[in-house]
Amino acid sequence: MRNVFYETRRRGASERRVLEAVRPEEEERAEGGQHARLEVAGLDHALAGLPAEQREALVLIGALGFSYEEAAGIAGVAVGTLKARVSRARVRLAASFAPQEKED
């Protein structure tokens, strides 16, 4: 039970770090800050729509810069499982940002 508690806290901390990383203050001050804030809000929404396992894998690799081996150790899964989760997360994110076709 104690391990579950620590694992949950670790995962929550990872997600908070990535959200802080995608909202840099400098980006808000730059020209086009409004547009940048909208893009970050869209990314937050898209990340929130991912299953927790896929979001964790993508955050560990894409935002926090861990190697696949390190990230697999943190997540407690095999490297192949982590790679599959990252791949699925990237496909889902790409689909969420793809333009939607209107039906006639």
TrEMBL record:
<dbReference type="GO" id="GO:0003677">
    <property type="term" value="F:DNA binding"/>
</dbReference>
<dbReference type="InterPro" id="IPR013249">
    <property type="entry name" value="RNA_pol_sigma70_r4_t2"/>
</dbReference>
<dbReference type="InterPro" id="IPR013324">
    <property type="entry name" value="RNA_pol_sigma_r3/r4-like"/>
</dbReference>
<dbReference type="GO" id="GO:0016987">
    <property type="term" value="F:sigma factor activity"/>
</dbReference>
<dbReference type="GO" id="GO:0006352">
    <property type="term" value="P:DNA-templated transcription initiation"/>
</dbReference>
<feature type="domain" description="RNA polymerase sigma factor 70 region 4 type 2">
    <location>
        <begin position="43"/>
        <end position="93"/>
    </location>
</feature>
<dbReference type="InterPro" id="IPR036388">
    <property type="entry name" value="WH-like_DNA-bd_sf"/>
</dbReference>
<protein>
    <submittedName>
        <fullName>Probable RNA polymerase sigma-C factor</fullName>
    </submittedName>
</protein>
<dbReference type="Pfam" id="PF08281">
    <property type="entry name" value="Sigma70_r4_2"/>
</dbReference>
